[in-house]
Design a protein that fits this description.
By secondary structure, the chain is α/β, with parallel strands linked by helices. It contains 14 helices and eleven strands. The strands form two sheets. A six-stranded mixed beta sheet has the order 8-7-6-9-11-10, sandwiched between helices. It has a five-stranded mixed beta sheet with strand order 3-2-1-4-5, sandwiched between helices.
Length: about 325
C-alpha cells in the first residue's frame, strides 16, 4: 500500500462541475480526512450537448478553474495530484485539445476514464468509511453527463453500467420550461425506465448510496424545506436534526415526491433565491429528482443514502492501495 505523510489531491472534471479535494488517507487505507475542498460549476456538458464540442468561453473558464485548483493543491504540499475527466470531457469532439491545454498550462495529466472505470472509482469512494459488510451495496453516481450504477461487496465490484442519463444531459434533452412541466419530468422518468429496464443488476442490496452534486443539493434542499415547514425540527443549538436530514442525508420516496412537487411549483430562479442554491445547480434539480425517482423504482428501493464522497475519493483510495496501477485496478474492479 502506498504510504505518504503528505496529503493527496484529486480534480474531477465533469459535465457540470470541476471539483478539487485534498485529503489525508487513514493509516489503514479505508477512510479519509478532508484538508481542502473546492468546486466550480462550469457546465462543460451544456456546450457538448448543444454542439458536440467544448466552446471557447467554457474551455477558458475550465482552464482558469483547473489552474486555480492546482495552485490550491500545491499550497498543501500534496504528494500527488490525480486529475480525472469524465463524460463531459469524454463526449466532446475536442477533448484532446482541451486535455493538451490543461497539461501545457498546469503540468497535470488528465486521465480520461472510461465509464467502467468511473463506475468502480465512484463505488470505492461512495462506500469509503462505511463498516465492512458481506451484503451487496449499490452506488449511483448522478453526474452531469452520465449515471453510473454499480453493485459490489466491500471493494469488489460485481456489476456496473455507465449510462448517458446525467442530470445535465437529461435536462438539455427534455426540459424547455422553467418551472419544468409535469410532462417534461414524466418524459425524463420514461427515459430512465427505458434505459434501466433491460438491465439485470444483482438484487436485492443492503442499501443504495447516491453520489453527485445534484443529489447532495436535493438532500440539502429537503432539510432546508423541512426546517421552514417544521421549525421544531431544529435542535437547541440551531442545527437541523437528524429528522431534518442535514446530517444523515437520507431521501425516501415520499420525500423525493415532495421535492418533485416543490420543483414543479417554483422557477429555478425562485429556488435559487429562496434556498440559497447556485443558479446553475438549481436548474438541474428538476431532471435530478426525476432521475432518482425512476431509478429508485427500478431498484425497488425505499430509501437513498446520499453521500458527498465519490469518484475523487475513490481514485485517491485506489492510488493509495495500488499506486500507479490505480486505473488498471478500476478497469477490472477487483479492489484490494
Amino acid at each position: 500500500m502506498h504510504s505518504a505523510t503528505k496529503p493527496l489531491a484529486a480534480i474531477d472534471i465533469g459535465a457540470n462541475t470541476i471539483h478539487l479535494v485534498v485529503v489525508r488517507i487513514s493509516h489503514d487505507g479505508t477512510d479519509i480526512d478532508y484538508v481542502d475542498d473546492e468546486l466550480e460549476l462550469v457546465r462543460l456538458g451544456a456546450d457538448v450537448s448543444a454542439t458536440g464540442a467544448i466552446g471557447a468561453q467554457r474551455m477558458e473558464r475550465a482552464l482558469l478553474t483547473i489552474r486555480n485548483q492546482v495552485a490550491t493543491a500545491n499550497t498543501h504540499h500534496v504528494a500527488a495530484i490525480l486529475a480525472i475527466g469524465t463524460e463531459g470531457v469524454r463526449a466532446a469532439t475536442n477533448s484532446r485539445e482541451f486535455l493538451d491545454k490543461v497539461r501545457a498550462e498546469t503540468g497535470v495529466e488528465v486521465e480520461l476514464v472510461t465509464g467502467d472505470q468511473e463506475a468502480a472509482l465512484t463505488f470505492w469512494g461512495g462506500t469509503s468509511g462505511l463498516k465492512p459488510s458481506l451484503s451487496r451495496r449499490a452506488v449511483l453516481d448522478l453526474g452531469g453527463g452520465s449515471l453510473e450504477l454499480v453493485v459490489g461487496v466491500n471493494t469488489r465490484v460485481l456489476w456496473r453500467r455507465s449510462l448517458a442519463l446525467g442530470s445535465g444531459s437529461m435536462y438539455n434533452r427534455y426540459v424547455r420550461s422553467d418551472p419544468s412541466t409535469p410532462s417534461e419530468l414524466h418524459a425524463i422518468e420514461r427515459g430512465v425506465h427505458d434505459a434501466l429496464s433491460p438491465l439485470n443488476p444483482p438484487l436485492p442490496v443492503k442499501e443504495v448510496i447516491v453520489c453527485g452534486g445534484t443529489a447532495t443539493t436535493l438532500a440539502w434542499l429537503a432539510g432546508k424545506v423541512l426546517q421552514d415547514v417544521h421549525p421544531a425540527s431544529r435542535s437547541p443549538d440551531g442545527k437541523i436534526t437528524v429528522n431534518g436530514m442535514r446530517r444523515t442525508r437520507y431521501l425516501t420516496r415520499e420525500r423525493l415526491e415532495w421535492l418533485r412537487a416543490l420543483i414543479l411549483a417554483c422557477s429555478s430562479a425562485e429556488l435559487s433565491r429562496r434556498y440559497d442554491i447556485e443558479p446553475g445547480r438549481a436548474q438541474l434539480l428538476a431532471s435530478g429528482v426525476a432521475i432518482l425517482i425512476a431509478t429508485m423504482e427500478q431498484l425497488d428501493a425505499d430509501t437513498l443514502h446520499i453521500r458527498k464522497r465519490g469518484i475523487r475519493e475513490g481514485a485517491l483510495l485506489a492510488f493509495t492501495h495500488v499506486g500507479e496501477d490505480w486505473l488498471h485496478n478500476a478497469a477490472d474492479g477487483t479492489g484490494w
